[in-house]
Amino acid sequence: MEVGLTEREAKIYITLLSGRMSTASDLQKAVDIPRTKIYEVLNKMVSRNICTEKKLGKNKMYEAVEPKLAMERIYENYRNELSQKKETIDRLSEIFTPIFENSKAIINPLDFIAVMEEKTQIHKRYVKSVRDTRVEMLTFNKGPYASDNDERLKEQEDEEAKLLKRGGSSKGIYQYKEFEEIDWLYESVKKSVRDGEKARIVDSLPIKMLIFDDEKVMFPLEQPIKTSNDLTMIYIEHKQLAAACRILFDHMWNSGVDFEEIEKAYPGKEKAFEVSSN
User: Fold this and answer.
1) Measured between alpha carbons, how far is 187 from 87 in angstroms, rounded to an integer?
2) Is the pTM higher than 0.70?
3) What is the pLDDT of residues 138-180, one digit of tens each?
């Protein structure tokens, strides 16, 4: 069977080897092949020169071809079939290649748009986007956050620090009230500023937003119905959209207060952001 015989052909050939000449009826009983199929299998074996057919009186008798010769014929048939398939494959390649090349001109929106409905997926996309950033990252930081556990938070902070170390820049805008509402946020921003991020604080941000190299943006999508997941993000690669978002970012940046200035004037988290928000 490994050299190309079907199971039925293999059974018949082995039976013929041990029993010399046999009728179709004898073979059908010996190898348990349906009567309607035995002649079909035998005719195929004869055409492939694996066995021979002889007529004795009214009966057709079948005999195995010498194994060495039979195997050579099987190999020759296999090689011919392979050669034919190779020709067919070459012809198909010639036909299909131009079609494939032409399809490259068709823009698939899925190539530059992605919707993420799970925080792990959002986190991975964010980390990859920071890793791929060459020049600058701009962020409107507003909950809910995908970095809702220590492991994710550390991974994000580490990737942001690497961006700054390789010469990139990062600007982030935060809301006063979230420093009181989110326990880890103050220390995380303080660490990022120490690493080189420029941070400003405003009373309120219109949306959560991230811009990478003025080419890619991430936004939250409002969910029409409440689900267990409270964050869905859309990722878009679109320079014109990123440029429009940059205008909004610059406007909010100019109205913000430097994080470091508040720290200098009012050391201590509670006092600093309580007085500043007033």
Assistant:
1) 67
2) no
3) 999 998 898 878 999 999 999 999 999 999 999 999 999 998 8
Q: Where are the domains of the chain?
A: 1-105, 109-277
Distance CA 113, CA 183 (A): 33
Core vs surface per residue 97-131: b (16+ CB within 10 A) or e: eeeeeeeeeeeeeeeeeeebeebeebbebbbebbe
pLDDT band at 275 (very low <50, low <70, confident <90, very high): very low
Highest CATH level, class, for 1-105: mainly alpha
- CB 186 within 8 Å of CB 158: no
Beta bridge partners of 54: 61
Assess contact for 219 and 278: CB atoms under 8 A. Answer: no
Q: Is CATH 3.30.2140.20 what the domain over 109-277 is classified as, yes or no?
A: no
